[in-house]
């Protein structure tokens, strides 16, 4: 196709080895080891998920929620293996954006780079608001009470006020009612969320070395707290003979376990963020794959053990509406001091997630700028700290301003859909990644012939959902958008099964693609609408700026070397 401008692996390796010279200030510092990458992965993943969403998932699935963590880990594992091969063979910053540029071309690379903003920048809005909630809870435990109108976003307060008015309830005690007025408008801002974004942005600006030290410290601290929680929790279960809380293990059946898919998947978001730091690795071809896989395995083990402990200490039914399940179980058993320690750990965990994502987003913009798809200013490196300074500041603004007033629930699904979209393209991209005969010591996905396995999986899926599929096929005009998405997935599944049989596709990237596509069908319709609008804005920017300033486009026209 005319718009398909593809970067070659040869050019990428040449740029990586020789440095970037077209108006840029060189490569980033190569200081990260496999230990640093593993810790950054843990820092990104172990955050709000284990301290908040694990409670909702446990309420739906009971102790058997551990199976959901394992299933989700396997799904993410397929994507992680694909990311690992890309990171090993394309050792530069940019993550899925750069990988898509190599395999699918410029327009798809732009789309995925634009979508990654939803994962990193928009996702950090959710994390910052969550951090603020834990921090305020911690301050209250210390006897410090900030005004309510400084601890919540304007949109959240207004939504609660409108709901109360519509329902005929009292509004006297609501934040929106008691907030002061400035120029005729209620002054309501989430100040702690804004301040933590400013702090993390400064930390990301001053250098990767300082950032990795901070991330490593925060990881050690929260791992120590989680280990303490597990040991003490198991002691309490054995001491008080609470093992009966594990029975029944699947109180709502496997269907109940699957209800928590969205929240549990959100808990795993972030392991791919370390691929954005490939250019800062001392040995990315070896260490990047190991760091991604190690961090995913460690996080899964932690999730499973913690889920078992909290569902053993307290009956799963008590987690309905509990926002801080780890602190809740100890407060429930009159161990308030332990609950305070956990709240501190939750604040640290959320901070580490913010840091890793604030490091990742600027590096994607930096790569897009190097390719000419964004203004050159985004690829300029700070002379002192050797970080993408301007891009880091812009990321801080993009996250910091919205957290003052926006509602986090509106952002969560957008983050998930952007992440899944990136996973789909990375997994599919491995299938068409060109080979270089001289490549040595690269991580390679183990080849498992999917010729017969993929069609069998497709047949089993269709057989299991045959009643739903037949109903949809006969009433497609009257079905909602969510069901139409499911039917589209079935069509894609059948096409992929046929292609796998004819072309003998590798099983792992195929499974990664299909698993992520299926999860995307579970995302609410309103989030899909917002996603399409976001993509539309991105395409307008590409065709109005990026396409005309593309480095590869200019080379093809003979206007650059």
From TrEMBL:
Q: Which residues form the Cationic amino acid transporter C-terminal domain?
A: 507-550
How would you describe this protein's topology in the membrane?
Answer: Multi-pass membrane protein
The main location is membrane
UniProt KW keywords: Membrane, Transmembrane, Transmembrane helix, Transport
* Entry GO CC: membrane
Q: Which InterPro entries did the record assign?
A: AA/rel_permease1, CAT_C
- GO molecular function ontology, one term from the record: amino acid transmembrane transporter activity
Residue ranges of the TM segments: 37-59, 65-86, 107-134, 187-207, 219-238, 253-271, 292-316, 338-360, 387-405, 417-436, 448-469, 481-498, 505-521, 527-545
| Compartments, record wording | Membrane
Protein name as it appears in the record: Amino acid permease
Q: Which organism is it from?
A: Haoranjiania flava
